Amino acid sequence: MQATIASTAALAGLILATTFADGKALQTTSIGKHNDFSCQPSANHPRPVVLLHGLGATYYDDLHVLEAFLQIRGFCTFSLTYGAVKGSPFLGGFAPIDESSRQIADFIYEVHAKTVGYGGSSSSSTRKIDIVGHSEGGFQALYVPKFRDGVAALVDHIVAIAPPTHGTPIANLLSLSPLLGHDAGILELIGCAACDQLSIGGASVVKLNDGKAIVQPGNKVTVIISNLDAIVIPPKSAFIYEDGVDNISVQDYCPLDLVGHISESYDVNIWNLVLNSLENQVGRKFACLVGDTGADPNLYIPAPIPSKPQLTRL
Length: 314
Hints:
Blueprint: H1 5-19, E1 49-52, H2 59-72, E2 77-80, H3 97-115, E3 129-134, H4 136-147, E4 155-161, H5 170-179, H6 186-190, H7 193-197, H8 203-208, E5 220-225, E6 245-249, H9 250-253, H10 268-278
Parallel strand pairs: 1-2, 1-3, 3-4, 4-5, 5-6
């Protein structure tokens, strides 16, 4: 996730430029704030969005730029670091899947209790929340509503980016830690129960695919993949072939997008697919971007909202 300050500035401008493509100023009270339960969403986006990070990551280093993208468009977003091993708070997602799922469910209960109703609408869909998850977070976005009591009834739309729905080779999961910049020996020190459980034939994968529907009544699901994903393989193993599911590849819309697994949460084209899903506009066209659209989360600072629409080139 290396990036120059110049490319980071371009990305910040890009987020804002695409936001104002229709020439209308969007408002939210929580741009750049984390878990602001006083957030007032826009009328067009009344449902809070819970974001779930991937294996070995945190809410910040995996999802904070996507959060900014959604916040600027009027969404209220909420995220947590789940599954951190005791003594290693900055290494999320390594704990057993069931343990993490309880933590995520409790967070969803909290977000729903503190936020639903802000949109000023009494429709059933606006009394719910949406979930966006990447990698293990995408798996948890499917797993938690199925197995944690009461969660499915609180959820409207689930967007799962590259979830290991049917498992992936354990060597691929173990490779994520050094790819994310962690010390090579960290997994020997703290272990990775989630790696075993998300592998092909792993306990949590078998449990999710128990012959009963993955998608719960009242939930809509979008699964987004990159055909070049080298961690969840084959990439289309993430797909769910059930009613109420849209399975899409970013290359279906942007054939020249070369994004891989780790960078998917930083890919502007995938952001637009997420936005389409949350707005119930799956299939809507958008301008594709080609090139390095990622950003170093340590450098990214949201820019001030411009007064007029802007065009930014990478």
